[in-house]
Amino acid sequence: MTLILGFDDYLLPAQQLAKSLSAAFKKVALHQFPDGETKVTLPTTLPQQIIICRTLNNPNAKLTELIITATAARNQGVKHITLVAPYLCYMRQDIAFNPGEAVSQKIIGNLLAAYFDSVITIDPHLHRINKLSEAIPISQACALHATNAMSAFLQQHFSQPVLIGPDEESEQWVKAIAQPHLWNYTIATKARFGDKDVAVTLNTHDKNNIKAVSLTNRDVIIVDDIASTGKTLEQAVKQIQQQAPLSISIIVTHAFFVDNAIARLKDMGVTNIWSSNSVLHSTNAFSIVETVSKHLTTINIKD
Ligand code: R5P
């Protein structure tokens, strides 16, 4: 039987994944020593093939603990280790923007490739590369999408919304959600000047510049992969409000919303803020567990 190993900080989704796969679940216990090091304790009996499920927000300590866990599992005789990390850290720095900057995507990708046979994640931030295996050089590196889960969720709440992608990269997700329902969508243009300084310009037409997309009196939903500072969303909301929509909602895969971003967006008049459980957050409204489970079933992870 397949075994899922989980950690206290991402317990429920890992347990749900085990349930969905009819797999056993066991916990890795962590103990923080006073000096900041971590003692990692694994179950004493492990099968030849295991799945470790832990999302990688707050990644620095988690990466160390994952490496210790994977190595200890190998020392117990485990032959195949899959990492399910619904949020995959360090994917954004994919080139050196300035001399001396480390390309963390490649460095962390190589590190994960050295310890895991298979890595599965959801909507990683792959900007200048097409495939996750270009960042994590193993054949079984798979990037799944939250769009099916988002689409099913949004359908329960709206019949004819207009979707907005706040930047070019978001087009892939917006299109995947909007097109099956024939929902209107438009993609904005974003310029970033700093971590918390962005400008978003709305387009008045659809992507092909054919159909005018009006937001007036419409339920508008902004779709993005990640909300970090929330500044991208704030700027998009400001622009959308100028067209007097009926309501503005936000849906993202990975919710960080640092520095009171939720309060600021609510104060601006955003009605709904929803996210997936790829990162545990008060906005979690839909789950990526079935998406991961279906994928694991199709690739036939063996006992
Ligand atoms: C950028 O390309 C991403 O898709 C997000 O739009 C961005 O990372 C969000 O960051 P923030 O919330 O800090 O504006």
What's the short version?
With 303 residues, the protein is an alpha/beta fold.
How does the SSE layout of this entry go?
Elements: E1 3-6, H1 11-20, E2 24-27, E3 29-32, E4 38-41, E5 49-53, H2 59-75, E6 80-84, H3 104-115, E7 118-122, E8 140-144, H4 147-155, E9 162-165, H5 171-181, E10 184-187, E11 189-194, E12 197-201, E13 219-227, H6 231-241, E14 247-255, H7 261-267, E15 272-276, E16 284-286, H8 289-298
Parallel strand pairs: 1-2, 1-5, 5-6, 6-7, 7-8, 9-10, 9-13, 13-14, 14-15, 15-16
Antiparallel strand pairs: 3-4, 11-12
The rounded distance between the terminal residues' Cα atoms is 5 Å
Number of helix segments?
Answer: 8
Low-confidence segments, given as residue ranges, are none
Please identify the top-level CATH class of the largest domain: Alpha Beta
Global shape: globular
User: Mean pLDDT, nearest integer?
Assistant: 95
What is the topology, as strand order, of the major beta sheet? 2-1-5-6-7-8
Strand pairing plus helix content: what structural class? alpha/beta
Please give the domain count.
2
| Largest sheet entry | 6 strands, parallel
Ligand species:
ribose-5-phosphate
Annotated CATH architecture of the largest domain: 3-Layer(aba) Sandwich
Gyration radius (Cα, Å) is: 20 Å
- Beta-strand share of residues: 25-35%
How many strands appear in the DSSP assignment? Answer: 16
CATH topology of the largest domain: Rossmann fold
Please give the share of residues in helix: 25-40%
